[in-house]
Amino acid sequence: MADDSIYRSGQGEKVLKGIYDRQLADLDHEFKSRYVDTQFGKTHILISGEERSKKLLFFHKGNSTNPYLLKHFTGLFADFQIYSPDIIGHPGYSAPISLSVNDNSYGKWAEEVISELGFSQINCLGVSYGGGILTRLASTAPDKIEKGIFLVPSGIANTSLFSILFKLGLPMLKYRLFSSEKNLIKAIEPLTGDAEVDQATLDMIEAIFEHVRVKSEMPKNIKPVDMEDYTAPSLIIAAENDVLFPGEKVIKRARDIFTGPLDIFLLKEAPHFCFLNEDRSDRIVDLIDDFI
After folding, report:
1. Is residue 155 a contact partner of residue 126, using CB atoms and an 8 Å limit?
2. Helix or strand or coil: residue 76?
3. Distance CA 136, CA 54 (A)
4. Which of helix, strand or coil describes residue 238?
């Protein structure tokens, strides 16, 4: 196992890929698998939907698997042909090499993925960490984005490090010291709120903590000057009770830095893992469908 791999061991990589494969099978949906080359390493992409449908590039959340996120957005399958890359440096089949969140590496990676897929421009959806990647793409190659959807996005108004340490760090430390399912549920409760967390979610998170060098850093807040050339229509969907990217702060700053047409929706009383609630997930799918 290479020193710069995100996995702690070869066995850990097998465990995560096994979880990935089971999640993909459980989706009970037909996917094509494709690899593209980028300067940062090979990137694996799941492709679903009819060729004639509208195209949507989907950037999943960080420290998670691609099919895990897709299962919460199956409502998009009917209307879109979805291209969903495994984010490089996160669990999946893309190169297990982390990119810097302090520069535009992820933006350049996303630009190359779009070009390698043969698109000059495409609708893009970024969730959480994936939203931060989308802000970097907007900075690096704004013309690549036909319309941009930023769901509980990083990279616009991240919360303070102190807040993260207080709300997430202490419960997480307790879990790492005294590993149990009860302590894991308490550790992620600030992210999940009152949503019921299923066993599959717990198993994936537990495996990631055990076998992956978890990334605590998120894509840094984008600067207004970096967004000056990005004028594509955008939709911001923020969660009111998001401990990572507070909804009202995200919306306020988005109004200041987005220069193109901007639609905004605040999910009332929703936590960061807003998609765990089926009603909210359906609402999010409707908002995306109507916007595109």
Report:
1. no
2. helix
3. 23
4. strand
Residue 282 and residue 280: Cα distance in Å, rounded? Answer: 5
pLDDT band at 1 (very low <50, low <70, confident <90, very high): low
Cβ count within 10 A of residue 138 = 30
| Structure confidence by residue, pLDDT tens digits, 7-27 | 999 999 999 999 999 999 999
- Residue 155 to residue 34: CA distance in whole angstroms: 28
- Is 257 a residue whose pLDDT tops 90? yes
**pLDDT band, residue 195 (cuts 50/70/90):** confident
**Domain spans in the chain, listed from the N-terminal domain onward:** 10-160+212-291
Residue in the block written with tokens 């931060």: 132
Q: Which two tokens stand for residue 155?
A: 């990279």
Where is 174: in which H helix or E strand? helix 170-177
Helix (H, G, I), strand (E, B) or coil at 94: coil
Q: Calculate ∠ Cα 256-258-264, nearest 5°.
A: 90
Task: Check pLDDT > 60 for residue 2.
Answer: no
Q: Are 236 and 119 in contact (CB under 8 A)?
A: no
Whether the per-residue pLDDT at 217 is higher than 60: the answer is yes
Pick the CATH number of 10-160+212-291 from 3.40.50.2300, 3.40.50.2000, 3.90.1150.10, 3.40.50.1820: 3.40.50.1820
